[in-house]
Amino acid sequence: MEPPRAPALRRLLLPPLLLLLLPLPPRARAKYVRGNLSSKEDWVFLTRFCFLSDYGRLDFRFRYPEAKCCQNILLYFDDPSQWPAVYKTGDKDCLAKESVIRPENNQVINLTTQYAWSGCQVVSEEGMRYLSCSSGRSFRSVRERWWYIALSKCGGDGLQLEYEMVLTNGKSFWTRHFSADEFGILETDVTFLLVFILIFFLSCYFGYLLKGRQLLHTTYKMFMAAAGVEVLSLLFFCIYWGQYATDGIGNESLKILAKLLFSSSFLIFLLMLILLGKGFTVTRGRISHSGSVKLSVYMTLYTLTHVVLLIYEAEFFDPGQVLYTYESPAGYGLIGLQVAAYVWFCYAVLISLRHFPEKQPFYVPFFAAYTLWFFAVPVMALIANFGIPKWAREKIVNGIQLGIHLYAHGVFLIMTRPSAANKNFPYHVRTSQIASAGAPGPGGSQSADKAFPQHVYGNVTFISDSVPNFTELFSIPPPTSCPLPRAAPDSGLPLFRDLRPPGPLRDL
C-alpha cells in the first residue's frame, strides 16, 4: 500500500524537475571549427585550444576576397605577457595587440601568396578573385598550454573570412580531437558508468528484498530513481564524448541533456536527504503541510538556479577565457543554497534524534557521512577556482564531481542494505502500516507528522519472506492462555461455560 502522501511528494518533485527540461542554447566547441566572419573590427578572436606539449597540430583552410588583403592569423599562448595582456584590454589597439607576438616563434601566419608557409593561392569564382589558404602548424612547448587564435588586419576596412580549422592532439582515438584539459574524461565517464550501473542494479535488488518485507518506502524509491537518472546521465555523456572523439564535433544537445539529467539526479538525492533528516518514512508517515510548502519553494528555487547556471554558462561565459562553472553569480548562488540545505539538514536530524533517540544507530553515521558530502561541492569549487591549473581543470573537476556522487550513493547503499548484520537499518514500519500510523487522531488531530511508534531495531533478524525461519520451524511455541468469560455474580449462570463443541444437529 502506498504511503498516503506519496502523490504530494510527486507534486513536490515534478515541477522542479520539469524546469530542468527547458531548452538551452547550444554552445560551440573549439576542436573542429568552421564559419564565416564579417566584421568592421580590425582584430577578432576566433577560438582556443589546449595543445599537448609535443603533439599539437592546427590544420586550416582560410578563404577571403583578394580585395580584403592582407589578413593575418595570430597565435597567442597563455603566458601573462601574451593573451592576458591583449584580451579585453581597452587601452590597446590592433598594432599594440600584434606587438606582443614573437615572430621567432612563428606565431604569425600572413595569409598572402608571398608567405610560403600559409599555402595561399589566388582562385577565381564567378568573376571574383579570392585568396585560398590551406596549410597547418605544429605546436611544441615545455608543458600543455592554452593557445588562442585571432584574426587581424590593422588599419584596414574590416575583416571578412571563411575559415575551417581542425585542432588535434596526436592521432590516438582517446586524444586526437580532445583538448589537453579534456584528456581522460571519456575513460573516466565509462568507468563511472559501469560502477553506477552496478550500484543501480544492487539498489533494485535491495528494493526487491524490501518490497518482500513491505519496507520499500518512498525515500528508498527516490534513491533508486537518483541512481537510475545518474546512469542515464553518464550514458549520454559517454555517447557524446565517444562521438566527439570520432569527429571532433559531437552533439551539443546530447551533452546538454546529460547535464540536465546529472543535475536532476543531484536534486532528487538532495531532497531525499532532507526528507530522511526530517524523519520521513523513518520516524513519521508524512510531512506537514507547512513543511511540504517549504520544501517545494526550496527545491523550485534550487532548480531555477541550476537552470540559470546552465544558461549563463552557455550564453555568457567568454570563450576567450578559461572559466569554471562556479565562476559566475549563479555558481555562487548554488553554493549558498547548498550551505542553506546543510543548515536545514542539521536542524531536521537534531529534531529527529531528540524525539527518537533509539534512531541514533542510523542518524549518527548518516549525519557524519553526509556532512562531508554537503561541504564537498563548495570545497571543490574553491579548489577548482584557485588551486587547479586551467589547462588541467576540466578533467580533474569531472573526476572529482563523479567521485562525490559515487560517495553519496555508495554510502546510502551500504547504510540501507537489508541484511541481518546491518544494525543501522532505518526502516521498521511496513508500508501497509503507514496509513494507520498516519490516521487522524482523536478529535481529528493529525498525528502523522508526529510519529511512528517508538521501537527497538527489528532488522537484526532480517529474513526474506520467501525464506523459511528454521528457528521457528523447530521450536515449540508456548501455549497461549485466553481469559475465559466470567458471568456476573448475580446472574445465576455457571461461572465457567462448557467450551466443548456441540453434538451433531438432529434433523427435525
UniProtKB/TrEMBL annotation:
<feature type="transmembrane region" description="Helical">
    <location>
        <begin position="256"/>
        <end position="275"/>
    </location>
</feature>
<keyword id="KW-0732">Signal</keyword>
<feature type="transmembrane region" description="Helical">
    <location>
        <begin position="362"/>
        <end position="384"/>
    </location>
</feature>
<dbReference type="GO" id="GO:0019236">
    <property type="term" value="P:response to pheromone"/>
</dbReference>
<feature type="transmembrane region" description="Helical">
    <location>
        <begin position="332"/>
        <end position="350"/>
    </location>
</feature>
<protein>
    <submittedName>
        <fullName>Transmembrane protein 145 isoform X5</fullName>
    </submittedName>
</protein>
<feature type="transmembrane region" description="Helical">
    <location>
        <begin position="295"/>
        <end position="312"/>
    </location>
</feature>
<feature type="signal peptide">
    <location>
        <begin position="1"/>
        <end position="30"/>
    </location>
</feature>
<feature type="transmembrane region" description="Helical">
    <location>
        <begin position="396"/>
        <end position="415"/>
    </location>
</feature>
<dbReference type="InterPro" id="IPR047831">
    <property type="entry name" value="GPR180/TMEM145"/>
</dbReference>
<keyword id="KW-0812">Transmembrane</keyword>
<feature type="region of interest" description="Disordered">
    <location>
        <begin position="486"/>
        <end position="508"/>
    </location>
</feature>
<dbReference type="InterPro" id="IPR019336">
    <property type="entry name" value="GPR180/TMEM145_TM"/>
</dbReference>
<feature type="domain" description="GPR180/TMEM145 transmembrane">
    <location>
        <begin position="192"/>
        <end position="412"/>
    </location>
</feature>
<dbReference type="Pfam" id="PF21892">
    <property type="entry name" value="TMEM145_N"/>
</dbReference>
<feature type="transmembrane region" description="Helical">
    <location>
        <begin position="222"/>
        <end position="244"/>
    </location>
</feature>
<keyword id="KW-0472">Membrane</keyword>
<keyword id="KW-1133">Transmembrane helix</keyword>
<dbReference type="GO" id="GO:0016020">
    <property type="term" value="C:membrane"/>
</dbReference>
<dbReference type="GO" id="GO:0007186">
    <property type="term" value="P:G protein-coupled receptor signaling pathway"/>
</dbReference>
<dbReference type="Pfam" id="PF10192">
    <property type="entry name" value="GPR180-TMEM145_TM"/>
</dbReference>
<dbReference type="InterPro" id="IPR053880">
    <property type="entry name" value="GPR180-like_N"/>
</dbReference>
<feature type="transmembrane region" description="Helical">
    <location>
        <begin position="190"/>
        <end position="210"/>
    </location>
</feature>
<keyword id="KW-0325">Glycoprotein</keyword>
<feature type="domain" description="GPR180-like N-terminal">
    <location>
        <begin position="33"/>
        <end position="163"/>
    </location>
</feature>
